[in-house]
Amino acid sequence: MSFTDATQFWNERFDKEEFIFGKEPNEYLVAQAPQHLKPNSSVLCIADGEGRNGVWLAKQGMRVTGFDVSDIALTKANHFAKENQVNIQYSLSDTDSFEWQPNTFDAAIGIFIQFADPEMRVRIFNQVRQTLKPGGLFILQGYTPKQLEYKTGGPSLIEHLYTEELIRELTPGFEILDLQCYEKELSEGARHAGMSALLGMVAKKIN
Predict the structure, then answer these.
(1) Rounded to 5 degrees, what angle do the CA atoms 114, 115, 118 make?
(2) Residue 7 · residue 13 · CB < 8 Å
(3) pLDDT digits (tens, 9 = 90+) for 76-109
(4) How far apart are alpha carbons 18 and 56 in whole angstroms?
(5) Alpha helices, DSSP H only, in the chain?
(6) Is the dihedral of CA 190, 193, 196, 201 positive or negative?
(7) Is residue 80 part of a domain?
(8) How many domains does the chain contain in total?
(9) Is residue 24 part of a domain?
(10) Which residues are within 8 A (CB) of 84 and not within 5 positions of it... i.e. 6 or more apart?
(11) What single-letter DSSP state applies at residue 158?
(12) Is 190 a member of any domain?
């Protein structure tokens, strides 16, 4: 999908009054971030959408950079940041056009970034490894193949979903601190609601 096509696709989804994934941050992120991230850490939010996760991290004292392919989502995210009196550096980019600076961030956050097909997913994991400082953290949340039975959010293509084995293969150069597959009732806006089959990972860049 080209940048223009992706922008159009996501703009159509985000062009609503309400926040389609809600305004509350992702539960796995909320559980993991305080254990691993210190205030004033530099954090990159990949495809941050309407800003629910970036704004929450900024309110915890993080210095947040984020990007998304939807300008409509980013308009909402910037308003949301302003309402919460936090400052986030947002840019209109997809994962291929974002400028991944080497050894820049203390953490990268990927929450339901399962728009990525297998080739793009490999690129994203490599880009994350490149942009993290040594010892930097990658916090990831996604759906597992069992999600296709629940149909409560996420992609309908099995190759976009995560297994523990796949995630281990994608993270050479990382020490995995937490990796779990579990099922849980999610309530993260209209798009992620109901019993869900989830994977969560926290990994530390080794060098």
Answers:
(1) 75
(2) no
(3) 999 999 999 999 999 999 999 999 999 999 999 9
(4) 18
(5) 3-14, 27-36, 52-59, 71-83, 118-131, 147-150, 164-170
(6) positive
(7) yes
(8) 1
(9) yes
(10) 55, 58, 59
(11) G
(12) no
